[in-house]
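Changelog-adjacent note: as of this version, every example in the card shows the full chain rather than a window. The one below runs 339 residues end to end.
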Amino acid sequence: MVDGRPSVMLSGSAALMVIDLNGGSIVQFQLREQGLNPLRWANTGGAGEARPMSHFLCLDRWGQPSAAELKNGMPFHGEATRVRWEVVEAGAVSARMKAKLPMAGLEVERVARMEPGSAAVLVTETVTNGNPLGRLYNMVQHPTIGPPFLDESTLVDSNAGKGFMQSSPLPNPEEPSVQWPYALLDGKPVDMRRLQSDPMPNVVSYVVDEQYGWATAVHPARGLLIGYVWKSAEYPWFNAWRHVADGKPLARGLEFGTTGLHQPFPVLVEKGRIFGRTLYEYLDAAQRETRGYVMFLAQTPAGYTGVARVEVSNGELVIHGRDGGRIVVKAALLEDWKP
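Full-length structure tokens:
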């Protein structure tokens, strides 16, 4: 039990991770030496309730259901955070768990494995369609950083490319388009790397053109960086969500997934593609699909100005700083995750 909630803990010599079983959210990921948890959002209250917190999985959808689905009880972002996850097996630095989504007719199995002696975790998730017929679905990772790691000085970087504002009207929200790290507000550019007092535009979606997508967030004064790496063939979209409360940054979503349009399935089907990328996936009857990502932590030097690129190379994650420096995170488990 962690904070009164059933959980799984991965505990290595360098890092600690906690996965909440009432909804499957990753609610804690921190360096042992530092103790600061960047993944803090909606972590308090409702001790027995299955709900989304911190880093959660959006499955079978991203965003709202249709009016008819809502009437029948389908929740926002799907059922994965609204059900109890069952532990299949767990050890000191690895765990396997699964959950059934009764309305969607899907089952998801997650394996999380921490690199011994390093602050890197490989997470793979397999979704199986238990329905007698095929169906559309989406799968979006929703890592959310919050205070005290998140404030006006926190810097977000990514190798995202072309994007659009979710606030732009349908049927062509991609017009006008933008390029990471920028968005538009009243026709003027907004730098998405920092979050100040104004959260608008609050959701901007970008495509990833490289083999691996990545996103990082760093608090320069606290000397801590959290990052994610994923295969763009599995997750072609990076979705940047920002939220302010009482004039202060409260949450930032470093979201990556199979869709970039925050709409119900009828709208996604009608639109089809944006920037040549599909907006939904299809699972045939009894078909299964596996996707994965690596999450990592690193200490940063004083005056760190952010990340220029993240390189996946020979069992290591090489973080190239904007100032020219390099940080290396050992991740031999990457050898099990090659394309």
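Structural remarks: The chain has one domain: 7-296.
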